[in-house]
Every structure is written in C-alpha cells, then in structure tokens.
Amino acid sequence: MNAPITGSAEQAFARFLDLERQTRAARTPAQLTYSLVNDGQSLFNFRHAALLIAGRVQAVTGVSAVDPHAPFVAFVEQAAAQLFKQGLLNQARVIAIDGLSESIQADWRSLSAGQVFWLPLIDHQGQMFGGLWLARDLPWSPPEQVLLAQLGDTYSHAWLALQPRKPWRLRWTRKRQLALLASLLLVLLVPVRQSVLAPAEVIPLGGQVVAAPLDGVISEFLVRPNQAVESGDLLLRFESTSLKAQADVAERALGVAEAELKANSQRSFSDAESSSKLDLLAARVEQKRAERDYAAELLKRSEVRAERDGIAVFADAERWLGKPVQTGERLMEIADPDQAELRIELAVGDAIALEPGAEVALFLDSDPLQRHLAWLERSAYEAQPTAAGQLAYRLDARFDAEAPRIGLRGTAKIFGERAPLALYLLRRPLAALRQSVGL
C-alpha cells in the first residue's frame, strides 16, 4: 500500500527541489516525458501517472512505449475528455469519481487507484494544453496538493521550453464543432470557376499541308525547321533513279509505237492487212503517250516546291531521309509565322462543360511565368487517342494578342462555368465512384 510523504518538512522540501532540478535538466522531449511520469513517484508515492498532451496519453509510469489501444490508456483519455467538458481540468484538483459516467467509473475501479489528482499544464496565455493523471490509494493531503500545484508550473515551463509550438486543445466543444461544420458547409457552397489543365501546342492557323505526291523514298531535304520559304522554292527531293528510268523507257516505247504506226500507214495503200491495223496501232500510240506523260509527271513530282510564302513547320528532317513514304502522307506545313492558334488535348477524365468563347490561359514550358490569353473556338465531340495513348478531346483556341512562336508547347488552363466549391473539389472522386458503383 502506498504511503504519504514521511519525514521532516526539510527533507520533503529538499526532495521537491531535487525533482524540479531533474525536470529542468531534461534536454529532449523524450527525457522530459520520462521524468514527468516517473521521477515524482518517490516523493508523492503515486501508483501510476499518465501524461496527456492535447487529450492523448503520451507516457505512463513504468512503460517504455505507450499502446494507444491499451485499456488504461483509453480509460484515461475518455475520463479526461468528460472532465474537460465539465470544466474541471483548468486547475489542479482532486478528481471525484462521482462526476463521471457509469462505464468510466467501472473502468476507474478496475484500472486505476482510488485517489486521483489532476495536475494541469498551462501555457503562457493561461490555456491548458495537457496535464498529469496521478493516482494512488491514499488521499492527497493539503501540503501535497500545494507542492503539486507548484510543481505543475515547473512542468509547464520545462515542456514549453522544449516544445515552443502551441499544441492543440484537448477537445473542442460540441458548439465549436457544429460551428466549424457549418462554416465548412458554407464554404463548400461558395461558387467558384471550374478549370482544368491540359497539354497544349501552338500550331499554324490556316497553314498549307505539304503531303507526299507519290510513293517513294525521300533523298534530300533542302529546308530546315522554321526556315522562311517563298512560293516556288524547292523543299525536298525524292529518289528519282527509277522514275527517270521509267520515263526514259516510256519515251522509247512511244517512239517505237509511233514508228510502227507510220510504217503501217505507208503500207496501207497497197496492203489491206496493214490498213486494218491502223486503228489498233493509233490506240497503242495514245496509250504509250499517256504512259510517257504519267512517267514525266511522276518525275516532276519528285521535286516538291512551296506553293506559298511562309515558314516550313516540321520536327526533324533526319526522321524522313531514307524512309519510304506513301502518297498523301504529311511531310510538313507551310504557315504564316504571324498566324497561329492553340491546340489543346483535354483528357476524357478531366472534361468539363465548355462553351465557345471560354477563357484559356497558356503557360509555356519555356516561359512558365508569362500568361498568354486565348479564347476557345472549337471543341471536338468525339475523343481521339493521342500520341501518349490516352483518349482526349481536341480543343482549338484563338489568341487574344500576339501569338507565341509556332511549335512551342505548354500547359493550358481552361476556365468553365461557375459551380459550388464542393463540386469543384469532389468532381473526380464522384465520377470514379459513379463508374465503380454504376449509379
């Protein structure tokens, strides 16, 4: 059985001063926590002590690591919460069991000693941020209560010296909780502008697409990316060896057909058989002439020239050299450098309701601090796979002022209509929940 303080007042006071010294000698929060629940046991003979900070048990006498799910820990936290609501923890006092609920009283009798003294920890503003639950079997005498109250000031000063940040309060009252909940609900109802982010690229406006005029292999690129060109300038050449041979063969075949037609025309006056072949030979001459013209046209197409003034817009010439291409395959684009628009790839999962004329803000990767304003002109109704393999809607926007250089990439922020903040924050989670649940 525990016993109260014994011995002379001088000895008790000396032990009290030594306890204060040990408290102030702590250099870390862990050392101070251990000292608060263990060092005073020799002076006050308590069975156990529990340190609570912000309503949670941080340390228990004789325990190295506190289990937050332990029965004693749960009991102390629940008892402190009830006493805090009753306003009984603001000053040092002996705790009466009668003021607690029946379930907590039962836990008290089975888990703690009969006499409990509450020692609050007070900050510089006079607000409680924690306390000590001291339990023993014998009643607490008035001198002991005076010493504990004095010791509480020392504990508070030492704790605030090592933990200067203001801790959370034990518990918020129900009134404050309801007020906070109401404030959050009102904030969630505040209308805000919806917006989404999507990758974007500056592309030519009304540019002329240069496509492959024939099936073949590109042998030479005569322009560089973003090079200025004029109408009639040579852009690239296709491998023409086979085309030249084909044109030469077609020319010779036409000469043979014409010579045969001429010979049969001369013999037709005396030879009825030659006269009957004239129509067939004339048709063959026309066929060979068409083949020659077609071969000459293909040979002419092997050199691709610009049909308008502008700049050559393409990525890299090296990726085309030596590569077989098909007729109609896009090679480059001739565009006016002063005429550009914005192409945006909006992922399906980020799509929101957008109307023509919606505001678009472009932030280029090369200059992320500058904002380029644009206005939405068109949006696709059908999503298409992008180069990254995801489905996205194509959006086209017209710049409000001078357009950036063609080919630059960045991130576009598209603004939609106003909606409650709750919808803005929970739109994606609600969409995922609906897809998974099927409602």
From TrEMBL:
Keywords, ordered alphabetically: Coiled coil
Keyword Secreted (UniProt): no
Organism superkingdom: Bacteria
Keyword Lyase among record annotations: no
Localization, UniProt: Cell envelope
CC annotations in GO: cell envelope
Protein name (database record): HlyD family secretion protein
Organism: Pseudomonas mangrovi
Lineage: Bacteria, Pseudomonadati, Pseudomonadota, Gammaproteobacteria, Pseudomonadales
